[in-house]
Specification:
By secondary structure, the chain is of the alpha+beta class. The chain is built from 1 helix and 2 strands; from the N terminus they run E-E-H. Strands 1-2 form a two-stranded antiparallel sheet. The model has no long low-confidence stretch (mean pLDDT 84).
């Protein structure tokens, strides 16, 4: 709903991790994001760069998709 990827553990599913939603930019960002997520899974802690992509950000809230004129205009808001 917020047009940001999901990177990290699903709070309601222990042991299940997400690394998706890059919408084409994953080819460029896969090495960095995969490395950071692998470090998290290995117990080295969560890197601050991943904070905004936490899958738990929707827990306890009613996430609503916002409509925009085109896909990329949603990133400007």
């Amino acid at each position: 709903p917020d047009k940001r990827p999901l990177v990290g553990a699903y709070p309601e599913r222990p042991g299940v991790y997400a690394l998706n939603g890059w919408s084409g930019r994953g080819v460029l960002l896969a090495p960095l994001s995969a490395g950071l997520l692998a470090a998290e899974i290995a117990g080295e802690g969560r890197d601050a760069l991943l904070a905004t992509f936490d899958p738990a950000r929707f827990v306890g809230s009613e996430a609503k998709a916002t409509a925009h004129a085109d896909y990329y205009s949603g990133y400007a808001h």
